[in-house]
Prior knowledge:
Layout: E1 2-6, H1 9-26, E2 31-34, H2 41-54, E3 62-65, E4 67-69, H3 80-87, E5 99-100, H4 109-122, E6 128-131, E7 153-156, H5 159-169, E8 178-181, H6 184-188, E9 193-197, H7 203-211, E10 229-234, H8 244-258
Parallel strand pairs: 1-10, 2-3, 2-6, 3-5, 6-9, 9-10
Antiparallel strand pairs: 4-8, 7-8
Helix pairs in contact: 1-2
Amino acid sequence: MRVIIESDAEAASRRAARFVADLVRRKPDCVLGLATGSTPLALYRELIRMHRDDGLSFARVTTFNLDEYVGLGPAHPQSYRHFMQQHLFDAINIDPTRTNVPDGRALEFDTHSRQYEQKIKDAGGIDLQILGIGSDGHIAFNEPGSSLGSRTRLKSLASETIRDNARFFGGEDKVPRLAVTMGVGTILESKRCLLLAFGAHKAAAVRDTVEGPITAQVTASALQLHREVVGIFDEPAAGLLKRRDYYADVERAQSLLESGQLQALGMATK
Ligand code: PGA
């Protein structure tokens, strides 16, 4: 995993937005995997700014969201469909028919989940998956103990997640207990992942994800098996990482490589 540590969440989100924008410019019909929650908000704000000020066009982009609460329709203010409309889709030139969020009111979730997976395949797979991480180390709603080979399906929320999300619903008792979520296996099939985490309350999850063993108890740790993950963290979220000096060395080398200054690395150039 490539680890990038920025001073604060705003700088980290701008960095993440550059990754997304580079892909959208290089491949205007790319497929983006999108996340909800507080983590990607500043990233989405920056993408909206790039659309408005720099002409970044999403006209041919297709999107798939990670998850949705069961029982909430698109008009519910806490539904993830509503979140996406409010924080990204309504402010950019994306074709609404190309935006996909699991249906929290599907009548038959097994069928709906299979169809969602098929739709991702039919679109050519996800080029770049944006991910937050739960304080219990989950990605999407793959709670501790989820199979690392899991596919899109119904999932019960863990008590830690219900507590974390109670603030949005005005109390723990109002948080839905079930969600439909892409599986860890689904996420691992995306071509590239961008993992974001901000704040000291994420530090233990980030440490376990990046430097801990691969375990279903921290489903984000399965990303260690993915061949192209970029983790972008702010200082507090990176606070418990042990190999920070090495990550900084890798970033220095990376920027020298990108600027064509290979001599500085002690390498011959021809
Ligand atoms: P957050 O949630 O972005 O609101 O912290 C992340 C998650 O639970 O995946």
